[in-house]
Amino acid sequence: MLSFKLCLAASAITVGIFGATSTVQAQNLKGSVAVDGSSTVYPITEAVAEEFRSEAPKVRVTVGISGTGGGFKRFVIGETDISDASRPIKDKEYNAAIENGIEFIEIPVAYDGLSIVINKENTWAKDITVEEIRKIYLEKHAAETWKDVRADWPDIEIKVFGAGTDSGTYDYFHEVLGKKESVRPDMSTSEDDNVLVTGVSGNKGAIGFFGCAYYFENMDKLGVVAVVNKDGQAVKPSATTVEDGSYNPFSRPLFIYVNADSADRPEVDAFVNFYLDNAGDLADEVGYVRLPSEVYDTARQRYGNRVTGSCYWDDKMQPVKGPVTQVYTAE
Fold it and tell me: 128, 179, 251, 264: which has the fewest C-beta neighbours closer than 10 Å?
């Protein structure tokens, strides 16, 4: 991991924003905070930004949605202060940051599930296996009709939608299906999940995938398919099934990555501390699932000590796998 660095200038403002003198110090903060990245993480970050604006109205917080990969491209060259990510940073992104002298602090902020959504008129697909999802989405299968997927499903053409190829949602979905195999090239993709909602809701034979928060927000427009998990149970995404892990393999943690130099600026430091203090409540509010309190406690400790690097890569840059409660640890 990258060496950690202590912030010498921000401690007073951290105490001030959330202590007895919060109103005065927050009102006096000035500057800007630039955030970009995952469209999946966008709703919670934007909710935090809106609440923070009421505390620090002179600070300009901008939140973009260029996708996890697109956000990291900007972040690793120092264009943004914070990068929203719906997956851990990749090794090539990590190495690019090192090459460009960018140290970062990794902070998980919520759980999300990846929902498999269908048109409301689809009455046949009550549940689906990962292998059947592969039949639909992988190029080597590229099922043309629902009957091609399961013999007792109707002979209705499948219209395939999915998250943009520069998104962490796409990366995660592709990883579950198998990174060594190509996704079908005729899939309609978008970095904007609202475009996918419109596409799936407008075609009876459509199927798509994106973060559960967008499904929860659009349940009146879309149906969702229960995914058969590793125990053979057909499970739909919900706050309970995402948190307890039964909605597998399509549940995951969400992250923000903070430029360590940016964290030395009082307005960025205040925003990140505000994010950490409110992430759980706002995650619930916008349709995500709060992390266990011990994960937020670890995040506060790592951020407070300016521990840089990623818990998802070891000292030899080998990937570290496992649930966030095991992988994300204090130093």
Answer: 179
> What does pTM read for this prediction?
0.73
List, for residues 204-231, the tens digit of each pLDDT value.
Answer: 999 999 988 889 889 999 999 999 999 9
H-helix segments, 38-179? 42-55, 68-75, 91-99, 130-137, 146-149, 168-177
Mean pLDDT over the full length of the chain:
90
DSSP-assigned beta bridge partners for residue 163: 190
- Of the options 1.10.10.10, 3.40.190.10, 3.10.20.10, 3.40.50.300, the CATH number for the domain spanning 113-244: 3.40.190.10
Is pLDDT larger for residue 271 or for residue 211? 271
Is 257 a residue whose pLDDT tops 90?
yes
In DSSP terms, 207 is beta-bridged to: 118, 160
- Residue-range domain boundaries for the chain: 11-112+253-325, 113-244
Q: Residue 161's beta-bridge partner residues? A: 188
> What 8-state DSSP symbol labels residue 88?
P
- Nearest of 126, 124, 120 to residue 225 by alpha carbon: 126
How far apart, in whole angstroms, are the C-alpha atoms of residue 91 and residue 317?
7
CA count, 13 A, side-chain hemisphere, 300: 15
Rounded to whole angstroms, the Cα distance separating 45 from 317 reads 29
Cα–Cα distance between 6 and 216 in angstroms, integer?
40
Q: CA-to-CA distance for 314 and 270, rounded, in angstroms?
A: 29
With contact defined as beta carbons under 8 Å apart, do 100 and 77 qualify?
yes
Nearest one of 86, 82, 102, 84 to 94, comparing CA atoms? 102
